[in-house]
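To close the section, here is one more complete example, presented without commentary so you can practise reading it yourself. The ligand is 1,3-dihydroxyacetonephosphate.
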Amino acid sequence: MMAGNWKMYKTPAETKAFFEAFKPLTESAANRDIVICPPFPNLHAAVSETEGTNIGVGAQNLYWGKEGAVTGEVSGHMLQAIGCQYVIIAHSERRQYFGENEADVVRKVKAALEYGLTPIVCVGERLEEREGGGTEAVLGEQFDGGIAPLTAEEFAKIVIAYEPVWAIGTGKTATPKMAADAHRFIRGKVSGKFGAEAGASTRILYGGSVKPDNVKNLMAEEEIDGALVGGASLDPASFAAVVNF
Ligand code: 13P
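Output:
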């Protein structure tokens, strides 16, 4: 799976222009799932531009519950109704700026699944945690608190994204080995909780400064099942180069 997280970039007109350029570049990419996650106001344009293509559309966040007096929030029900298929959950920017925690992850994943959305659940350590030797402890806590409480049936429908926070938007990619080691650790946690088969089949994406010139080496690692791409997903040619690596 190659997923683009546009973060807080692009207008609906820019969204339309992106897909006009991007679609012809990726129409023969048959053996992978392509996903674009634009900001909420662009979802409608993204869904209509991608109708009948091999490209799925996702949101970057959701709120649990179907509807209610929750000013400023968007529900899974609304995302499903507009044609979304995916939703990113607990991106590190949401953890950092909006205080999202593991209890939120569980509530949001369940809400996404209730409305037929595939959750892309983000985990990852900060620089000081890696430098202090705490990477596995952090990933373990995020897994135990946010993912382990799911049922096996729920877990089977999620995608995990490992995004080391120090590699996001910094140009400092994790080496393929660093990423693979983290993925192996997460996979071990999955096997321990949900069984060996779940461990082997779960998709774990790597995110953090993925670009056309480093994607091939990252994807050469058997542990890495795809990428969650920020900056390089904003330009049609560069994201197509990532998708078609
Ligand atoms: P960059 O690819 O810009 O480092 O962002 C990664 C990311 O946060 C994707 O969710």
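Once you have examined the tokens, check your reading against these statements. Strands lie at 2-5, 34-37, 55-59, 86-89, 118-123, 159-162, 204-207, 227-229. The longest helix spans residues 176-194.
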